[in-house]
């Protein structure tokens, strides 16, 4: 069983409440999906019922995560949102009905607010040692549709 599928199973066994542990597990799962070789689910697909159980956990986790954004979390958020997009895109091929439910999370106000935060803080260095700050990102493996990686610092001195 691949790592992403194992993490989905583990996450599906949690209650749907939003605790710091749940948030951390969702962020870890999606960052691992960001880093993993694609396709994520080529031979080892997660069961539909596990993914269905994860929906509320993903929803709650990102809702809570969106209200705690700060520059130290920006790169973590970029990787996590990309991981969510990679997972969701692959679901379109194996579980189209679940794809639409995960896509609703991608289009949610809280994901959009995280993306806006990333855009608005581009160029601001984290005050403290941020997780993954020194991690080298291979931008050739990031689709252009993951726009939160390609924001440019914009001076608005007019």
TrEMBL record:
Q: What is this protein called?
A: Uncharacterized protein
